[in-house]
Amino acid sequence: MEGIKVKLFRHSYREASDASRTVYARFELVYTFVDFMAALCFIVGSILFFFETEQIPATWFFLIGSFLFAAKPTLRLIREIKLYRMGDVKDLADRAK
Length: 97
Hints:
- This protein is mostly helical and 97 residues long.
- It has a domain at 32-90.
- 79% of the residues lie in helices and 0% in strands.
- The radius of gyration is 20 Å and the shape is elongated.
- Pfam families: YrhK.
C-alpha cells in the first residue's frame, strides 16, 4: 500500500457528505452521553464514600465511571475510522470510473 497515507481525525471527513455528518452527529451524542454517565458515576461514588457502610457501592460507581471514561477515546477512534472509510469508499468509486 505504498503511496497511501492513512490520515485520521481530518475535519473534512466529517463534512464529506450527509451520511458522514449523520455518523459524526450520532457518535457525538453517544460520546456526550458516555461522558455525562461517567461524571455522574464519579459524583454518586464520591457522595457514597461519605458513608462508611456504602464503600462497596461507591467503589463500584468509581469502577464503572472509569470504564466509561476509557470508552471515550475508543468511541472517538471508531468514529474516525468509520468516517475515513466512508471517504475512502468515495475515492475508490471515483477511481473505478
